[in-house]
Amino acid sequence: MPRAPSKIRAVGIVIAARDQSDTIAKSILSIFAANRYSGWRNSLWIVVVADACTDATAKVARDAVGAFGEVLEVTARSLRTAHQIGARSAAEHFRDIPRHALLLASVDAGTELRCDWISTKLQSSRPV
Questions:
Q1: How far apart are CA 102 and CA 19, in angstroms?
Q2: What is the CA radius of gyration of the chain?
Q3: Residue 43, CA distances (Å) to 23, 27, 120 in order
Q4: Phi, psi of 84 (to 5 degrees)
């Protein structure tokens, strides 16, 4: 029996980063690759939270994310707090999308995602 289509209308991805200028672009580009692979045609927004960075993480992230997100520079010095700040920002960006229709996920700044990552997330958000 085929499963019902996902009710997700928007995907927000939070990346908390500290001094990861060497890996942040690859992580962001892997999100774009996963997005293309999934065939996702709705809204995608990436929030990078550059927390207490002493390197070029914020600049590299801004260059990589382009018009598909934002980079927030904070001095929380806490991965958890950085994630919370990013999640609030993504939720605010999608304020017109009902919460049940928003997929909000976190990605490590040093991780290159598998190409089916977004597809897998969308499939797991489908009602049973």
A1: 29
A2: 15
A3: 24, 19, 17
A4: -65, -40
Where on the phi/psi map is residue 77: left (φ > 0), alpha (ψ -120 to 50), or beta?
left
Sign of the Cα torsion 70, 81, 28, 55 reads positive
What whole-number distance in Å separates Cα of residue 26 and Cα of residue 61? 10
Q: Quick one: DSSP state of residue 67? A: G
Residue type, 59: K
Q: Longest Cα pair distance anywhere in the chain, in angstroms?
A: 53
Closest CA to 50 of 80, 16, 90: 16
- Is the torsion defined by CA of 111, 117, 122, 123 positive or negative? negative
Residue 67 neighbours by CB under 8 Å, 6+ apart: none
pLDDT tens, residue order, the chain (128 aa): 344 556 899 999 999 999 999 999 999 999 999 999 988 777 999 999 999 999 999 999 999 999 999 999 999 999 999 999 999 999 999 999 999 999 999 999 999 999 999 999 988 875 54
